[in-house]
Specification:
alpha+beta; 6-stranded antiparallel beta sheet; 4-stranded antiparallel beta sheet; oxidoreductase; peroxidase activity; Dyp_perox_N; metal-binding
Amino acid sequence: MHPLPEPQAVTAPLSSAALILVGTVPQDEAAHATVREFCADLAGLVRAVGFREPSAALTCVLGFGAEVWPRLFAAPAPAGLHPFVPLHGVHDAPATPGDVLFHIRAERSDLCFALATQILAALGPALRPEWEVQGFRFFDNRDLLGFVDGTENPTGPAVPAAALVAEGGHAGGSYAIVQKYLHDLDAWNGLDTAAQERIIGRRKLDNTEIAEAELPSSAHRLLTTVTDDDGEELQIVRDNMPFGSPAAGEFGTLFLGYAADPAVTETMLRNMFLGDPPGDYDRILDFSRAVTGGLFFAPAASALEDLAESAPAPAPAAAPEAQAPSGLAIGSLRSPRAG
Ligand code: HEM
């Protein structure tokens, strides 16, 4: 097997600070050209800001949504790139506008802030910011619900295996699903710790797993454990970040999942919002509302530079339809308890 092209900083470790920026690209040729050319400039910007404080390990991942891809690039879109599929259950997972994702990470928030400022200055009117989250590490990697978040993330060689497309023209790229969740902390904190632990599936204080036999089927850790037909667990790489504004009463978790195949993350989402078995949804959602949703593809680093030169023909034939979410016909992906 050929070595993978160098990915963007998808597999970088969890950081102390992160800034997530999602924007849309207006329908005009000048904007398209600006964004396209920026693909070759991003690495230099990251170096310019990051080299001022190398110990802060600044990184940035740039991803594109399905609708904008054929507007920007002649190169064919990745097979799994499609618009985020909204889910409607007792609670909804909305799809919200977003053509471009920037996932900026560093050990210091000032570097994230400076890079985002430079990116927006470079893109000017070619990028309309839709939403931004500035996340921070909270004590021992806890989310604002008070639980340690990220424990079961893959480690070592399992990270690229879970996050990066292994072969084909888009090898080394990654599919990112991003959602912003807002918590009702008063309601959550009204539960006793044992009730919270049964919702998450782990102990709050020491972070140990609660045995499956002691949990309801709606426990978060059970609904988000998915396997293939052979019973092999299918993993994603999560980069959740707490964020919020105490004065505004806003307390949230930014969910960002990188996957080699977006169908894996989508199965987890379906299990959470629709339930597995159906109806038995994830009770985190009684306390956490998803307010944004987007699916993006982050090409390999060298592919990103090549895309700067990949302008579509001036008068293109009808843009190819974004590929249907074939991955959703994932009879092969299921919760271990389903079969
Ligand atoms: C409000 C949003 C969310 C919060 C607060 C949250 C929190 C947590 C916590 C505390 C854990 C247990 C520790 C760990 O292994 O990380 C966990 C596990 C996990 N979560 Fe989430 N999560 C959220 C949303 C999501 C979403 C949207 C997905 C996927 C689409 C997801 C996928 C997972 C997975 C795969 C695990 C590991 C399960 C295991 O193997 O034990 N989470 N989450």
